[in-house]
Amino acid sequence: MPARRELGLHALPDLSGDLDWGQDPRLVDLVTSPEEYLRSFQPAGERKRGDGSTLYSLVPEAPRRIYKANPDAKLIFVLEAPVSRAFHAHAHNVELGVEPQTSFDTALEIEPERIKAGASPFLCYATGSQYRQMIEPVDILFGQDNVLILIAEDAEREPRMTVRRIAKFLGVSPYDDLLPFVPRERQSIVPEMLARLRSRRKHPEISAQFRSAMVSEIQWMERRTGSSLDAWLKRDQE
């Protein structure tokens, strides 16, 4: 894995020419040429290589470009309950200083306009939680055997088991000598921050509509993974 967090090469053609690259620090580090992209993997030698760009899940055409570059690629998605994902993404963006709308409801309401205007994909909260729209094209392109879906809560609760699943999926030797898993310190302030954001709600009916729409996404994910996601339904209703 390269040291740079978001290489994002396969998402670049879909980013608007009007995008203010300086508005989001996660966009500043994107590579802009195939040559620069390949250089990022040089230290790997003959080992398997991976790109951890979450941006690819937010850009509809990125999977096709990945397939064109490497049809044998394997893809891993780590997903949380869709409403929670959107709310946490908004809270994180407010914390980073890249989200001027401190009201989650308002951010949802103006999202379609933002998309048309070419805003940072990281500001797409509802769109980024449409898991069926995100994963179905990848399943078709690469085949379900090459797409691993991990539930974030399971990965956090059982990190060693998750690493073993990933190793088996990738065809590499498992690495069991993990450091003790300790949640990041930033997580300790999340409840307080979410409480502040909830207190600024202006149009709660918008969030209610969003929660209702996301039920079908969870039901699709249950069929896709063959697992019960009742915990997601409960969490998103809260």
Provide structural commentary.
The chain is 49% helix and 4% strand. The protein is mostly helical and 238 residues long. The protein has helices spanning 25-28, 34-39, 62-69, 82-96, 104-117, 131-142, 152-157, 159-170, 190-199, 204-225, 230-237; strands at 75-79, 147-151. Helix 5 packs across helix 10. The protein contains 11 helices and 2 strands. The longest helix is centred in the C-terminal third of the chain and has 22 residues, at 204-225.
Overall shape: it is: globular
Topology, number of strands: 2
The secondary-structure element order is HHHEHHHEHHHHH
Helix content: 40-55%
Low-pLDDT windows of residues: none
The number of helical segments is 11
- The portion of residues forming beta strands comes to under 5%
Derived structural class: mainly alpha
**Strand order within the widest sheet?**
1-2
Average predicted local confidence, pLDDT: 85
From the N-terminal CA to the C-terminal CA, the straight-line distance is: 36 Å
